[in-house]
């Protein structure tokens, strides 16, 4: 009888694993990243770091090294990444994890196309770029003075940045980490977080600054499980100076608005890459009905996320204090009435007009026409059903040249 029970348990576990695998396959790219239609490892790149590398080689750009943070300040300026976007994590989610702890967190800075990671005292500065066609491409630059510094591509990062969490494409994720001091196994203990996750499960392992009202979250304190998010309520944080010596850090904030924008953006980038890759594979296999269906499903998933269909509501208004919100909103573009998809709400949700600003990204514009046209058709069909949908359609028609007219 005991053997029969064990067999049934094993069978149940195997069935659950199979179902989980099928679910992952349904919403992830499953072909090799190096099939001829993709050629991730060998195809030319055209991301912003690659372009900066070319300017450095040609002597058209330079990077100034300083003793405070090496090339960080120069790289942020060269890639047009705002200092105000700084967010910091004491989760050891980096191949330079030995440098990261509560008193020396990893700092991340980002714009729509690149993210820069800096650990004080580390040998390398880390940069991730969204290539318009190839998705996430990862680079490092040595943190030592060099007359002609260069970024080196580092595909070793794909050990974490190509998984089911990134939809089977080289991409990005923001992890809520369960951290316990001196726990050697805390490196990968946690889960990806985006705008669909409730706030009481967000920001584990992250410092969070700003006015968060009564919002419950997992940030600012080490935690060992998801049952203790309320502890963060007792630890509001207005400045990183309250937690550690910020020497070398360009800002003293880990801004709540920047964290929310970054969470949305990482998954959106992966959805764009996945949809583009599925469409390129379909173009290379004409007549393949299953692959055509995969393109359709990818576009459906992208539109749902783009329109914040499953966004978790804010349970309390929040306000950033780093200046990031103001810089983000100023980027536009704006329609004739001054409206923009970058306008923030921050009372009950992230955006006033819930449609992702990443529709203006180089990666979205590089989507194959088949996929982009399908996405536009879905948006035209779905937006009239959504709150502020008519306004969003008007904004898109006033700011996106290739968007279908009324």
What is the element layout, followed by pairings?
Blueprint: H1 2-26, H2 48-57, H3 72-78, E1 87-89, E2 106-110, E3 114-118, E4 124-131, E5 135-142, E6 152-153, H4 158-161, E7 174-177, E8 190-193, E9 206-207, H5 256-284, H6 289-306, H7 324-330, H8 362-365, H9 369-382, H10 389-399
Antiparallel strand pairs: 1-2, 1-9, 2-3, 3-4, 4-5, 5-6, 7-8
Walkthrough of the structure:
This protein has 406 residues and is an alpha+beta fold. Helix content is 32%, strand content 10%. It has ten helices and nine strands. The protein has helices spanning 2-26, 48-57, 72-78, 158-161, 256-284, 289-306, 324-330, 362-365, 369-382, 389-399, and strands at 87-89, 106-110, 114-118, 124-131, 135-142, 152-153, 174-177, 190-193, 206-207. It has a seven-stranded antiparallel β-sheet, sandwiched between helices. It has a two-stranded antiparallel ribbon with strand order 7-8. The model is unreliable at 1-24 (pLDDT under 50).
Summary, kept brief:
The chain is of the alpha+beta class and 406 residues long. The chain is built from ten helices and nine strands. The strands form two sheets. A seven-stranded antiparallel sheet has the order 6-5-4-3-2-1-9, with helices on both faces. The protein has a two-stranded antiparallel sheet with strand order 7-8.
């Amino acid at each position: 009888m005991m053997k029969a029970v064990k067999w049934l348990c094993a069978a149940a576990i195997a069935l659950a694993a199979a179902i989980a695998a099928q679910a992952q396959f349904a919403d992830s790219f499953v072909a090799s990243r190096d099939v001829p239609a993709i050629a991730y490892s060998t195809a030319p790149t055209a991301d912003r770091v690659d372009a900066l590398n070319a300017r450095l080689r040609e002597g058209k750009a330079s990077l100034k090294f300083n003793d405070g943070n090496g090339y960080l300040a120069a790289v942020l300026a060269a890639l047009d990444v705002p200092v105000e976007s700084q967010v910091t994590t004491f989760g050891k989610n980096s191949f330079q994890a030995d440098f990261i702890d509560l008193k020396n967190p990893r700092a991340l800075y980002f714009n729509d196309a690149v993210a820069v990671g800096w650990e004080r005292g580390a040998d390398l500065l880390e940069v991730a770029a969204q290539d318009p066609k190839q998705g996430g491409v990862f680079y490092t630059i040595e943190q030592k003075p060099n007359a002609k510094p260069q970024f080196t591509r580092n595909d070793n990062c794909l050990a974490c940045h190509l998984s089911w969490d990134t939809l089977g494409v080289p991409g990005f994720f923001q992890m809520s980490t369960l951290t316990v001091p001196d726990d050697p196994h805390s490196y990968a203990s946690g889960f990806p977080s985006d705008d669909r996750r409730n706030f009481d499960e967000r920001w584990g392992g992250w410092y969070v600054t700003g006015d968060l009202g009564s919002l419950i979250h997992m940030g600012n304190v080490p935690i060992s499980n998801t049952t203790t998010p309320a502890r963060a309520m007792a630890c509001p944080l207005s400045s990183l100076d309250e937690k550690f010596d910020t020497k070398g850090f360009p800002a003293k904030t880990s801004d709540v608005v920047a964290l929310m924008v970054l969470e949305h953006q990482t998954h959106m980038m992966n959805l764009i890459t996945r949809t583009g890759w599925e469409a390129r594979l379909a173009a290379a296999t004409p007549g393949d009905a299953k692959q055509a269906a995969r393109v359709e499903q990818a576009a459906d998933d992208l539109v749902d996320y783009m329109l914040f269909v499953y966004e978790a509501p804010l349970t309390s208004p929040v306000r950033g204090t780093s200046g990031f919100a103001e810089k983000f909103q100023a980027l536009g573009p704006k329609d004739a009435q001054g409206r923009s998809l970058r306008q923030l709400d921050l009372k009950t949700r992230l955006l006033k007009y819930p449609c992702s600003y990443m529709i203006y990204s180089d990666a979205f514009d590089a989507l194959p026409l088949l996929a982009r046209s399908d996405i536009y058709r879905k948006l035209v069909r779905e937006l009239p059903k959504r709150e502020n949908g008519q306004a969003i359609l008007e904004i898109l028609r006033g700011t996106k040249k290739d968007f279908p007219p009324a």
